[in-house]
């Protein structure tokens, strides 16, 4: 039987992925929106300097017999990533987005957050 954290991770990951895909399609096909270079750079930083290192650290912690040394770097990258996401949301999306787009953003952000917390509890709980 799978631990409940994996089920939570699975379903919240699906919600986050669905939110991301719906948001992308909404931007691309409904709004026909082009992002400014500043917004594109902010989102690339969040992914490249936040998401990718987080993935590598989480992978290392999962494969390690002793995941404790990964804890502080994971938390540092988490805080940095949250700051970048908040910057993107408050600077570029706050006034521009309607209810539908905000719903997609919430699905993406909260789905990822819940998935991360479930993973964290599985590894360190």
Q: Can you walk me through this structure?
A:
The structure is a single chain. The chain is built from four helices and no strands. With 125 residues, it is mostly helical. The chain has one domain (4-124). Helix 1 (4-30) packs antiparallel against helix 4 (99-124) and helix 2 packs antiparallel against helix 3 (71-93). The longest helix has 27 residues, at 4-30. The mean pLDDT is 93.
Report the mean per-residue pLDDT as an integer.
93
N/C terminus separation: 18 Å
DSSP strand tally:
0
CA gyration radius, whole angstroms = 16 Å
Summary keywords:
membrane; transmembrane helix; 125 residues; globular; transmembrane
What is the fold's blueprint, element by element?
Blueprint: H1 4-30, H2 37-63, H3 71-93, H4 99-124
Helix pairs in contact: 1-4, 2-3
Quick structural gist:
With 125 residues, the protein is mainly alpha-helical. It has helices at residues 4-30, 37-63, 71-93, 99-124.
